[in-house]
Amino acid sequence: MAATGDSVAFARIVAAYHADMVRVAYVVSGGSQDLADDAVQAAWAVAWRKLGSLRDPERLKPWLITVAANEARQLCRRQRRTALVELHVDTLTAEGPDPADGATILDLERAMLNLSPDDRALLALRYEAGLDSSQIGALAGRPASTVRWRLSRLIARLRKELADA
Amino acid sequence: MPELSPFEARLAAAVRGFADGADTRVDAAEVASKAIGRRRFGAFTSLGLPLPLPSWIVLLLGLLLLALVGSTMLGGSRGEDRLAVAPSASPATTERPAPSPTSMPATDGKGDEVVSGTETQVQLSRGVVTATSAMNDRRVSGTGTFRIGVDGYDQVSSEWGTLRLENTAGAWEGSCTGATWDDGSRSVVACWLVGSGGYAGYTYYRIHRSMTGRTATFDVEGVIFPGSPPNLTDPEVP
């Protein structure tokens, strides 16, 4: 129904998936609620326009989440300078992280803030949204092998950073 | 999700813990209304004009009618052209329309030709991309199978692999190289393909590119000529 322009059905979809989209956008934005809200609102505008082109209803949730992640990435890029300053302050006030094997979740959260929005998007889609490499690749138009490669490289980098610090 | 290493499990917990900081409360009706409103009101909303849509439609139709009447009264015969107003593109459509194979006249399908069209990815599995080519030359329209490898760097990736494009009359096969950037949404890949079957003795050189952020549809341009691809190892190459 929403695909054919039923605004009530569309509102139901918003109610069902908004939280999942905000959580992912929040991770991508590095913890900016305003940016996450803006990104998800923009994602819903995209969804309203393109919902009709989505043929498989089972792909709705991953598709919506990916759109939200992409909108958040784009907003982050536009606000990159500001974000870098904010992240720099966070880094200065952070406690020294443990080596990777003993890294706490708090250490990892801090390390995530130093990643690019693109890398955070990958982590969010994989671990928050629970999408596998094939799903991320299909939604992003890239081979699953590329997604796996980027993810493994990212994990290795985080391990190294936490171990070296 | 498959079993994770201890480090990856902590990373997953960290990501989810970080996401817990988000305020996910929502007024679904308002969010939906805003999303729909962006489409319906488009530029008017950005101008801060709160007029409801019907009023704007009435106003625009009125202006259009006025313009048409004015044009007719001025005696412009070209006004007849303007009366044949085609349905305007939806304001929601922001992507550049892909050039249709019909945007270039169809070739006669013989000899050397400049060709263009689009290619749409229909399946991607384990590094193998299946795509359909809709070109203005029937010889290079059909189903293509790309086997691609990707070397990724921070911002860009290089791509390399093979392409086999086939249809009922024959096939084209050869190697491709290219690059992608902007998270894979923009790319240029060039392929030298050698014909077989009904296309034996011909070469098809083609470039497909996506410069619009679209990821599943590519613009394709190329040439077909009788002969072999250039041989860079030829000792006579200057």
Task: Please provide a written account of the structure.
The complex is a heterodimer of chains A (165) and B (238). Chain A is an all-alpha fold. Chain A has one domain: Up-down Bundle (Butyryl-CoA Dehydrogenase, subunit A, domain 3), CATH 1.20.140.160. Chain A has helices spanning 7-28, 33-50, 60-78, 80-93, 105-113, 117-128, 133-140, 144-164. Chain A is globular, with a radius of gyration of 17 Å. Chain B is an alpha+beta fold. Among the domains of chain B are: 6-41, no CATH class; 101-226, Beta Barrel (AOC barrel-like). Chain B has five helices and eight strands. Chain B has helices at 6-19, 28-41, 43-46, 53-73, 79-83; strands spanning 113-125, 128-135, 142-152, 156-167, 170-181, 186-197, 202-210, 217-226. An eight-stranded antiparallel beta barrel of chain B has the order 1-2-3-4-5-6-7-8. Chain B is elongated, with a radius of gyration of 26 Å. In chain B, 21% of the residues are buried. The interface between A and B is large, with 57 and 47 residues.
